[in-house]
Design a protein that fits this description.
Oligomer: single chain
CATH class: Alpha Beta
Distance between the termini: 55 Å
Order of helices and strands: EHEHEHEHEHHEHHHEH
Number of strands: 7
Number of domains: 1
Strand content: 5-15%
Number of helices: 10
Radius of gyration: 18 Å
Length: 277
Amino acid sequence: MNREVVVVIGAGGIGQAIARRQGPSKSVLLADYNDNTLKSAAAVLQGAGYNATTQHVDVSSRESVSALAQAAAQLGSVVQVVHTAGVSPAQAPPAAVLAIDLAGTAIVLEEFGRVIAPGGAGIVISSMAGYMQPPSDPTHEDALAHTPADELLGLPFLSAEAVPTSAAAYALAKRANHLRVQAASVHWGDRGARVNSISPGIILTPLAQDEMNSEGGPTYRAMIETSASGRVGTADEVASAAAFLLGPESTFITGSDLLMDGGVIAALRSGRLQLRR
């Protein structure tokens, strides 16, 4: 029997929630850079009856991601790929944010685009920050969408001088995720597969907690207070959205981004929320 495989890259709160939702009757391959997080997440899933295995991965490394893709293909038919790995502005300097959140996502899309099964689907977890970017130069957007992943970080407009802060790097990376997913959907489509992204707002995960406890905490609280929902989101809500985009009811959706932010971007564009540039 050719077992169906779900690959979840990033074993944090959102990754675990999606693994629980998508994992029954499939082999779950969990991957993360933090081995303690990986071991803990796998133990929880295995204890609940899931068929879960693990592999260390550094998404900023082509060699590491390629090894993960090959390991997944050896387990069976790779029917779903979920990429949640990333760092926030409070967790890393600008260069690391670009290497992991921007180039890392491009590498994952390229490597798993070679092994995704016909009829399969992928999800990239991006961020509402991708909607906070001012309009970009069209030539920059084209470069972010189509430049080979290994050359991305050499683009002049991604230099340390051009992107001096982690917040700027994060917003740019998440906008690039949207563009990259749209471009990758063409190549995934050649294999009969789909790929989309989800841009969550403030989801209560350890990453969000780090941001809430950072200098940007007041901004985060303002986002929550001015949004239409007036609350944070949950990892299980993201997993529900992912289940739709990975499942049979969304087979005509590919190359798209789903903004699920509780209304933060709407508040920003209406003028109710004011953010300092």
